């Protein structure tokens, strides 16, 4: 057999030279026992190449903690090898991460390689098959032994341990990061994987294979659900990066089935990746179109349909208004009250001092009226929806500069009305008070909750409102949009548990909101209260929601929604619920229906979405009287 040989002179030569196996280099821990050392006569078969070098795979060990794959970092040397070459080479073992990315995990590499010798050609490496019927499957629920705390990987405080500093011995049977680390550099196949999301901004796709995964929803996405009371992190899900042969990944959607993916396991940009040798093809795209909610409004004054929708930076000129209007009119069937978030001012993100959103809301309610009437029918004011909001102080509530996003209510005046009162201003706090008849109302209606509290610095303030039915029964609502998860760190990163951006601020915000809710319940423990909106966190982050725990009920629990189907958003590998509806005891005891309407998470492309959030619709009973409704007797639920 023909042998090619290439020699490279290395400036510094080590003193001692011994043959070292790839498995010796990888070792049983996150970091190599040879880190920083020169090694010689490292042999392995070339499995893949990229423009920075190539991957080699040596003899495997029985010990599943130890990888037999390795990245060789050298573009020059890469040009002298072919896939299938059995090579021998020297080099220095490095634990590498970009200086600009200090929260990344280290990738074990052989750098400054030399003494390359091709011992034979045309060798094959059989990929390790990741599937239930194959060689290995990832662990089911946990990412890292260091995600300690009451809520596992979602625990607060975050960043208690640095994984690389701890350099633990790998436990690939138990922890996802350990599992992927134990395969670092190896050639693996995931047979017919499923995509868990749309592509990310680099075109990479999160996938999972054929193994049991808690929280798998009907669409094929992976919902964050509790397992043994701990939130599941979907540790077996992995990013598929740019194919090594220059082909392009298909544009994924949630639940899309792909053909087998074979590639090398690596770590880059904060995550474990498989770099496929070539792009997979699409085997199947979910065909079921999003279904409209089955909940519809009734004539009964006590039975109220609410909708909740983050309409993503809506201004009067937004192209997505007709889609949002269609969702409200035809998928939620025009709820009696809409809780909206991310309504921008009338000048959108132009930073010009305008704070009123009167035009934004007017255009929206007019477009909803058109959607209700059908495309060609001209609609004239008054539209079926009235609206109310409170203008923020200019650029004081976070979000896109100049946009002045705020929460707002739409309501159907023939069904409900705001109790008479004065609308508050940006800085005035509303309070629960008794009116002249001794009935509860709000001092400002609607009004903001404690808007000058530190909790709301640089963020949207909640809008509380007191309502009455056409029979005069009263209820309260709070519409919130808590601080975003900006500044969160990677779930595959060094900081354990990962940093949950602004969790401390959200906890404070929930606390202030809970204090307000409690002030109503203190005056009337059987008050009907609905708290809804974009809360930017999962109920599984129990620390954040703790202040509400004894006051309100998650409407999903009241309606007994399958935990896997509780999602309104998809981010990275998770389908997740960050939009919530909570109700008071009195409302919960009368039962409720709720539906998350997946008009956006089920879109056939990321760009076809009208918003990044799905809307939710719910039916509740707001009167203290119980009675027969359309043949259905409302029964007090004793077990709530
Ligand atoms: C490495 O291999 C070369 C032949 O390619 C041999 O001459 C040398 O002795 C080996 N070194 C070690 C440390 O095994
Ligand atoms: C990491 O752990 C391995 C195995 O215990 C050890 O050989 C290596 O020196 C450790 N590296 C560091 C930087 O602690
Ligand atoms: C985690 O904490 C360390 C200090 O222990 C700090 O250097 C690092 O920047 C933090 N990581 C993140 C992602 O905030
Ligand atoms: C919106 O603006 C119009 C015209 O300026 C005004 O008549 C109306 O009262 C405003 N509506 C609300 C809800 O502020």
Automatic annotation (TrEMBL):
Keyword Ligase: no
Signal peptide: 1-19
Gene Ontology terms for molecular function: catalytic activity
Domain Endonuclease/exonuclease/phosphatase as annotated: residue spans: 326-613
Pfam family, one: Exo_endo_phos
Alphabetized Gene3D superfamilies for the sequence: Endonuclease/exonuclease/phosphatase
Highest rank taxon of the organism: Eukaryota
Keywords: Signal
Key word Signal present: yes
CDD domains associated with the record: YhcR_OBF_like
Record's protein name: Endonuclease/exonuclease/phosphatase domain-containing protein
